[in-house]
Specification:
The chain is of the alpha+beta class. Helix content is about 35%, strand content about 30%. A four-stranded antiparallel beta sheet has the order 2-3-1-4, with helices on one face. The termini are close together.
Length: about 100
């Protein structure tokens, strides 16, 4: 079975308002088996458009990643982010384990 990844690119418009989101999203993601591989940190744009914050979360399966995103708990956490930021989030399947 292949792992799956949330890849998020976020631009924060109100840092004070946004601060409630990370602890809540972390709680939900870890409850669903997600592991943060990258959260913020240095980035260099090579092509396209750059947002200021980048997050990669690994899950054991594509279904687990989708279930976490669609959960009522994450919907509540997401409501703490969306008024204060814009973002692009994609869930991708990783390589199948041999």
């Amino acid at each position: 079975m292949a792992n799956a990844y949330w890849i998020a690119h976020i631009t924060i418009h109100d840092l004070e308002g946004f601060k409630a989101y990370p602890p809540e999203s972390t709680k939900v993601v870890t409850q669903h088996g997600g592991r943060f591989l990258s959260r913020g940190g240095k980035a260099q744009l090579l092509e396209g458009e750059l947002r200021e914050r980048h997050v990669i979360v690994e899950f054991d399966s594509f279904d687990a990643a989708i279930a976490c995103y669609n959960s009522p708990e994450y919907a509540a956490a997401r409501s703490l982010r969306t008024p204060y930021s814009d973002g692009d989030i994609v869930i991708i399947e990783g390589l199948a384990q041999i």
